[in-house]
Amino acid sequence: MATIVIETRIHAPIELCFDLARDVSAHAESAAFTSERVLEPGRTQGLLEIGDIVAFEGRHFGMTQRFVARITALDRPTRFVDEMVEGTFKRLRHVHEFEFNDGTTIMRDTLNWVPPFNVVGRLADLLFLRRHMRWFVTRKQRALKRIAEERAKSLAR
Hints:
Blueprint: E1 2-10, H1 14-21, H2 24-30, E2 37-39, E3 53-60, E4 63-75, E5 79-86, E6 91-101, E7 104-114, H3 118-156
């Protein structure tokens, strides 16, 4: 099983960051660089809650790929977990954790996955999949940081 952990520091309240991370529209906006869009089945707008299903389609490795996940744990505003129920991976689990310290929210994303295709998948994981996953989540979280900090500034006015 492969794992990456990415931390992003955001100058915004923890509740705002937590809710943006589970907001379907904010997710689509922050992943727009892959032409990602929200699809049915599942929630297509609003905040994800425990038990919800959400489906996305985006371009990765030059192909359109579909990903469907279920929210399996949620403890606002510190943690929620989504797990793949349909997609390319054999297994994918994404833990979203939030801490607030000294005026800054630390958003920590931990992804664990089992790549597709046994031996070939492990080789692909070593050669490019892990790097792609890190790039995707880092870029997406930078966009979420921008959205959160802009909203926090407008709320402070």
